[in-house]
Design goal:
Blueprint (H helix, E strand, L loop, with lengths): L6 H4 L2 H20 L7 H23 L6 H23 L1 H26 L5 H16 L2
Helix pairs in contact: 2-3, 3-4, 3-5, 4-5
Length: 141
């Protein structure tokens, strides 16, 4: 069963840059907009799991690989809520009880946006070429 992307996809500079930018924004948010359940370690944990699983989970849906749907759903849940619940259970159970219901929708939304951003398999130059070719094809009709 092939679920994760080949290592080359995870090492693309544009994807790593966007991951680093996202983590930087999460860290800045945890510093400047304090919340009981938003700290630096969970920002790294959730971002890393999202990077590894979000595009794969979305691809399972888009390619209708129904046999892999349970794994995609479990990966999504773990990246969005499971790791969060485990982390806060040990760090501050009161914060978990207070914030878990609010965290899930926000984290799932970010997970979906990241899945769309990181779904493309290829370089930015290849993406640009494909977009240009598609636009040119659409103008000839």
């Amino acid at each position: 069963m092939k679920f994760l992307y080949p290592p080359s996809e995870y090492l693309r500079p544009w994807k790593l840059f966007s991951l680093a930018l996202g983590i930087a924004l999460l860290v800045l948010g945890s510093i400047h907009m304090p919340a009981p359940d938003w700290d630096i370690p969970i920002s790294f944990i959730m971002a890393g799991l999202t990077y590894l699983t979000a595009p794969c989970s979305l691809r399972v849906l888009l390619e209708r690989r129904w046999r892999q749907l349970p794994l995609a759903a479990a990966s999504t849940w773990f990246a969005v809520d499971g790791c969060y619940a485990i982390y806060w259970h040990f760090v501050d159970p009161a914060a978990l009880a207070f914030m878990r219901a609010a965290n899930a929708p926000a984290s799932l939304s970010l997970y979906g946006m990241c899945a769309v951003i990181w779904l493309y398999r290829g370089s930015l130059a290849q993406l640009s070429d494909q977009v240009r070719a598609s636009l040119a094809f659409g103008q000839r009709r």
